[in-house]
Amino acid sequence: MTRISFPRGAGPVVGVATTLAFWELIGRSRAFGEVWPPLTAVLHSAVVEASGREVLLRGTVATVPHAVRGLAAGMVVGSLLALVGGLRPALARGLGQVAVVVQAVPVIAIAPVLLT
């Protein structure tokens, strides 16, 4: 069996290209209806049409501050938990198990639990 080897660093490029190709194929096939437009239609709307640029800009302005706050909060909480686990090895195993559960369960399923 022959193994195909790619140049170093090509994996992420291949992964992104594959994701973008599937996005386009799913959009063109209308597998998910109108809610999943082809990538080319999204790019055309964002680059060519003024209304599309406006919608994209409004969405970006509304989303980025929340994403930055969420990223910062996640980094702080994660760093604190890592510090606690490093200083108290007895807690490290339990924190590791909680981390596995949080990573394994989809966010949409665990969000109500975390909010409660």
The counted number of beta strands is: 0
Mean pLDDT: 88
Order of helices and strands: HHHHH
Round the Cα radius of gyration to an integer and report it. 21 Å
Proportion of residues in extended strands = under 5%
Largest sheet data: none
Given the helix and strand composition, which structural class is it? mainly alpha
User: Helicity level, as a percent range?
Assistant: over 70%
End-to-end distance: 53 Å
Shape: extended
Sequence stretches where pLDDT stays below 50 over 5 or more residues: none
The number of helical elements comes to 5
In a few lines, what is going on in this structure?
This protein has helices at 10-29, 39-47, 50-87, 89-104, 107-115.
Task: Report what the structure shows.
The chain is mostly helical. It is built from five helices and no strands. It has helices spanning 10-29, 39-47, 50-87, 89-104, 107-115. Helix 3 runs antiparallel to helix 4. The mean pLDDT is 88.
Labels describing this entry:
116 residues; mainly alpha; 79% helix; extended
Topology, please?
Blueprint: H1 10-29, H2 39-47, H3 50-87, H4 89-104, H5 107-115
